[in-house]
Amino acid sequence: MQKQALIYTGKAKSVYETDNPDYLILHFRNDASAFNGEKIAKLDRKGRVNNRFNSFIMSKLADAGIETHFERELSDDEVLVKRLKMIPVECVVRNYAAGGIAKRLGLAEGLPLMPPTFELFYKDDKLGDPMLAPSTAIALGYATADELEQMSVLTHKVNDVLSQIFDEAGLMLVDFKLEFGLFHGRVVLGDEFSPDGCRLWDKETKKKLDKDRFRQGLGDVVEGYEEVARRIGVPLD
């Protein structure tokens, strides 16, 4: 598979075409960004750690019968993926209160949410990724009712699979976001799963081991990611 033109540069990843129109190459960069680009930094090893972390998680999800765009690692910081027609709706699951929901509703961080909440957000940085009602997503043509139902089912299945993996490693999967797209008409999990897009706390100490270390200026950001990776068995060497 030959790497060709750069077609998109995001906050932490770059996307390249290949000589096969059905596949793309994702490059995980060392960039870190928070608050819609207001806080930016470069963190040594971040791209490599996130690539390895994402590859491990996507493989675990595939083993559980969840189709993802992941195909295979190409290098320390690049991966081959299916080319999806992305649905501009983020799916967010919250197992515990933190971040946005804690601020909106005045909840204490760490409050268990039973059952887990499921929320939709319109993916648009300029608008701050606003919350979205399913009926609005359908009315505006972002997704069909059937696609949203499949996204909901798959997101909850991902939560079941990953909550067990992290729990066995002494970690709390507090919340996470997922993005989906269409591949030859099928709803497929896209983007990435790494500590950039979820909250992970140590079960005993409640130490934050995710992107909140960067958002809140706690330091040792990549070291936190690496700790999670080692605890769940991600091969970093």
From TrEMBL:
The SAICAR synthetase/ADE2 N-terminal domain, residue ranges: 7-231
A Gene Ontology cellular-component term: cytosol
Pathway where it operates: Purine metabolism; IMP biosynthesis via de novo pathway; 5-amino-1-(5-phospho-D-ribosyl)imidazole-4-carboxamide from 5-amino-1-(5-phospho-D-ribosyl)imidazole-4-carboxylate: step 1/2
E.C. numbers: 6.3.2.6
Catalytic reaction annotation: 5-amino-1-(5-phospho-D-ribosyl)imidazole-4-carboxylate + L-aspartate + ATP = (2S)-2-[5-amino-1-(5-phospho-beta-D-ribosyl)imidazole-4-carboxamido]succinate + ADP + phosphate + 2 H(+)
Entry GO MF terms: ATP binding; phosphoribosylaminoimidazolesuccinocarboxamide synthase activity
Family recorded in the similarity comment: Belongs to the SAICAR synthetase family.
Name this polypeptide is given: Phosphoribosylaminoimidazole-succinocarboxamide synthase
Organism: Moraxella caprae
